Amino acid sequence: MSAKKKLKIGIYAETARGDKLTGIGRHVTALVNTIASIEPDNNILLYYPGTRTNSRLEGNIASAPNVKFRPVWVPANLPSEHPRLWWNWFLPAAIRMDGLDVFHGPNHYLPRTSIPKVVTIHDLAYFKMEVHGGSRDELLRSSTRSAMEKANAVIALSNNTQEDIVSLGIEHSKVHVIYGGGNVVGESQIQYARREEMQRRLGIREKYILCVGAIQPRKNIPFLLKAFAQWKAKKPIPHQLVIAGPKENAAADVMELIQSLGLEKDVIVTGYVADWELPLLYKGADIFVLPSRYEGFTLVTIEAMAYGTPVIASDTSSISEGTGDAAVLVPLDDVETLHASLDRLSSDTVFRSQLIAKGLERAALFTWDECAKKTLDVYRKILSR
Fold it and tell me: Where does 270-348 have alpha helices with state H?
């Protein structure tokens, strides 16, 4: 068997900068670290706007001799105020100078460049509903469509997202489904000694239901709140509901609904939580619930299952691709069924144990090693053409 060709890979890494990573940022961080680890002979250049190496990126990307940080000089605020100039002029100029084999845009965007290129599409929710609102959703639709058309290959995080991509007229043969892994740390890395500190900071009692995700309309938090309120009204349960994630454009409506349902003392909206806190939140939760209307692929259910927490989720979009039969899937917006499922999982110990065991087995199928290997295969496939 012939040796694999060494590659010079460019990856856009702006989303992996900072100390408050989103789902895409975590995906990019894990992908880069794993690609660098499994094929150390490749050279990886990480591009982002700036004038020097950024400590907020270095803190997330593991130190490796085959990884180079590649800040690209650009006038202050230009990438956010005039994104087309960044993607069509500044970034392409740097790519031309660096002699890459392939460029990867892991967050729906691609620069104007003639070299082989790959774009990752995490989901197409903003083609179906309001996500961020107004002009931002419009820009995302335009940029995403352009990137998919320019790309030599498109990576979709699920079969459901692949179908959404093809429905927009993108050729099926250039769309590759590659699942991600969860943001899961080993047992020895979980900071159990700080559990009480976390509980005090967030105001969490011993028993709670957990939901993790940014508070956006598509996350459908009202569905969960209504079912939780119904459960509370019918039974003297000790549980709180903990909603952990950035407070985005649906936060005001969610806070108003919490008040109208009389749940102020029983619902905790944490905002962004630190990396060390998230494993403790998962491990301590009685049940994890994902009430979303739409997901391109959902790593939070993988994470919950990996930490041994039973999962309830909406039966919609790609969610069942991740959970298989290892979670309770409920019809979207069916408050009665969600309430009944919460009650059963909190009281039926045999069913709960069965679901936890299935979840641990299911979560083990989704790894960053597999994601990185398949991504490298896509790079080589388009280069061979």
Answer: 277-284, 299-306, 319-323, 335-347
What DSSP state is assigned to residue 152?
Answer: S
On whether both 193 and 156 belong to a single domain, the answer is: no
Beta bridge partners of 209: 241, 287
pLDDT value of position 329: 98
Compute the 3-state secondary structure of the chain and give helix, strand, coil in percent, each to the nearest 5.
Answer: 45, 15, 35
pLDDT at 6: 93
pLDDT at residue 1, as a whole number: 45
Sheet strands (E) in the chain: 8-12, 43-49, 67-72, 102-105, 117-121, 153-156, 175-177, 208-212, 240-244, 267-271, 287-290, 311-314, 328-330
* Number of CB atoms found within 10 A of residue 367's CB: 17
CB atoms within 10 A of CB 275: 14
State which residues of the chain have pLDDT below 70: 1-3, 51-58
Tokens of 184: 């899961």
Query: Are the CB atoms for 289 and 342 separated by under 8 Å?
Result: yes
8 A C-beta contact, residue 322 and residue 363: no
Contact between residue 17 and residue 55 where contact means Cβ atoms under 8 Å apart: no
* CA–centroid distance for 134 within its chain: 22
- Please indicate, yes or no, if residue 2 is contained in any of the structural domains: no
User: CA end-to-end span of the chain, whole Å?
Assistant: 20
Q: Has residue 217 been placed in a domain?
A: yes
Query: What does the DSSP assignment read for 94-111?
Result: HHHHHT-SEEEETTS---
Q: What is the CATH number of the domain that holds 79?
A: 3.40.50.2000
Question: How many angstroms separate the CA atoms of 16 and 331, rounded?
Answer: 34
Q: Is 31 a member of any domain?
A: yes
The Cα 338–Cα 291 span in angstroms is 9
Burial 217-256 (b: 16+ CB within 10 A, else e): bbbbbbbbbbbbbbbbeeeebebbbbbbbebbbbbeebee
Question: How many C-beta atoms surround the C-beta of residue 134 within 10 A?
Answer: 9
Q: Decide: 230 and 262 in contact? Cβ < 8 Å.
A: no
State residue 53's pLDDT score: 58
Predicted pLDDT of residue 238? 95
